[in-house]
Amino acid sequence: MDVQREIDTRGLNCPLPILKAKKALAEMHSGELLKVIATDPGSLRDFQAFARQTGNELVQQETAGTEFIHVLRRR
């Protein structure tokens, strides 16, 4: 997967991972991919809701140990 930007939100709790992702997506071009690494278990449902509400596509979500990886495509 060709990710254009990656942000590390490990150690941050809701709503900070979403806010940082929103800011990063605003600086990106349509179709580009953003990878967010988080440690907040609530981020799984938060990013699903964020994608639905904003029209950005949630391309992938995975759990790797205590980390949650979200990949979003900018609308």
Automatic annotation (TrEMBL):
* Domain of life of the organism encoding this protein: Bacteria
Against Gene3D superfamilies, the record matches this protein to: TusA-like domain (3.30.110.40)
Question: Which residues does the UniProt record annotate as the domain UPF0033?
Answer: 7-31
User: Matching InterPro entries, A to Z?
Assistant: TusA-like, TusA-like_sf
Q: Which family does it belong to?
A: Belongs to the sulfur carrier protein TusA family.
Entries under SUPFAM superfamilies matching the protein: SirA-like (SSF64307)
Q: What is this protein called?
A: Sulfurtransferase TusA family protein
Organism from which the protein derives: Pelomonas margarita
